[in-house]
Amino acid sequence: MRFKMQFHKTVMKSYFRYIYKLMSSASMAALIVLSLVMGCKERVDPKLSEIDSKMEEHPDSALMLLDSYHLSANASDYDRAYYGMLLTHARYKNFIDETNDSLISASAEYFLKHDCKEQASRSLFLKGMIQRSANSLGESAVSFSKGLDIAKAGKQYMWAGQCARGLRMIYESLHDGSAQVKYACESRKAFLKCKDKSWQDYSEYELAIALNNNCKYEEALSVLDSLDKQCSIKSDTLMLTQIAQLRGMALLGLGKYEESLKNYEYSCELNHEILCEKDFRNIRIALYNLYGDSIPENYLLLLNNIEIKNTPTDAYDVLVNEGDYKKAYESLERYKDEQDSVLSIIFKNNVSESVNQYETIKSILAAQKLRNERLSYCFIFLLILMIGIFSYWRYREKIHKEESKRLKIEADMESLRSDLMSQLDSAKKELKNASKESECEKAIGFEKIIRQRYAEANQLCDDYYQGCGISKNKSNDVDAKINSIIAEFKDNESMYKIAEYVDGKSGGLYSSFKKDFFHLSSECHRLFLYLMLGFSARTLSVIIGQSINAIYIKKSRLKSKITQSDLSLKDEYLKFF
Predict the structure, then answer these.
(1) In the chain, which end has fewer C-beta atoms inside a 10 angstrom radius, N or C?
(2) Cα dist. 356→349, 360, 458 in Å?
(3) pLDDT digit string (tens) for 130-167?
């Protein structure tokens, strides 16, 4: 039992070593494939990379360089898509309004196809801005949404923030305050991750706009107060003007008209050109609520600094021009309540339908991806199962081979020990029956050889059965020791003494055999000597180093030669077969 447990333990170690080697080979193959995939990445023209590095700081220079850049006839598809994206981006940064999105669409399609997440999300942002300029709000919302999803998947936080900004602007034009707040928060979160301070500040400002548009005036003021404390905007006059302007709107919403007017005054002092028609109306509302028709001179100067474009259909402007401020205010309130005009409703429906369609397609693709992943997991599971079955089969085969080898070693040792025991008993009898001194010496010499070999073989068997010869190395040692014992029977000196003893014991029969069959090889003579000693076919197999079948064939051929002869001692020779 102890032997079998040790044997299985050793084979299990070999099995796990085999699995480890197999997994190491698989890992190496995976690394090679990965390196090949990484090596297939497109290389961009260094000139285009240099132009791209100037895009944020010097967009005008980037546009000039792109206008003078010429794509070669053998330019790669990646360079063509990259060039189209850079040109669109440079025009956008230089405030060149475009309504044709064919160039950027081609770039976006290429980058999406080749899974270049950074460039794909960037291209989709630019495509969405062009579509927004063309008043295609539904298509624009889809481009921004797709760009946002890809940017988040690729951890491209800059373009995730930009796409979220685009969606906020769309929903601002649709007067959807809750959606504005949602995407303004998402934009700020993305810019915080990309650690771009200027965009972080701007995203805070846009969040305040969204909160104000959603009538969350106190939250908007809280964000503006936090932003106003940032050192990074102290020298940014435009940002300070916009903050004061937005604070004036929020305070107006809370009914704090005096504070609202002060912020509008401060905004006008910084840059009166930024105030628009909407600000003019807000100031008029605050003045009406504070002073009625008696507007102070300084606020009339403030109103005169705002450039507005009056339209004959604008009831508010008509009433203001007539000096009927009360009706003008009421008219503006009605306008705010009725701002969801037919055109606005159409735009809302268009955006909602487009985004819902995109979300539906995205859900279908996500479900398909999940299904493919599950199929992949099933395939991997089956592959692992097959590898496991194959490994187990190899393990069982290895156990079978080791077991067969063990059984052979046991049989060889038992056969050798049995034959040696038989010869030792025979030598002891001969020693007792020896009548002459010469016969006694021969018997003693033979017994000494056989006794020594038997003692070694017996000890080897005992050690083996006690569990000392189980591992592969130990079993090889057992084979070596057996071969060492057997080698003694091949030693010429030992064989001469054994032959002399056998010859004397048989009345010179071995010498007669050698004379009668002098034409046979020494191997045949030695085989006959082993047969005279009474060695079994298994022991002969171990001694000669050939299979048992080969021994049977050799014995059969030798027997046939003896049988075909007409020698007088033929029957005596055949007794040993």
Answers:
(1) N
(2) 10, 6, 88
(3) 999 988 888 999 999 999 999 999 999 999 999 999 99
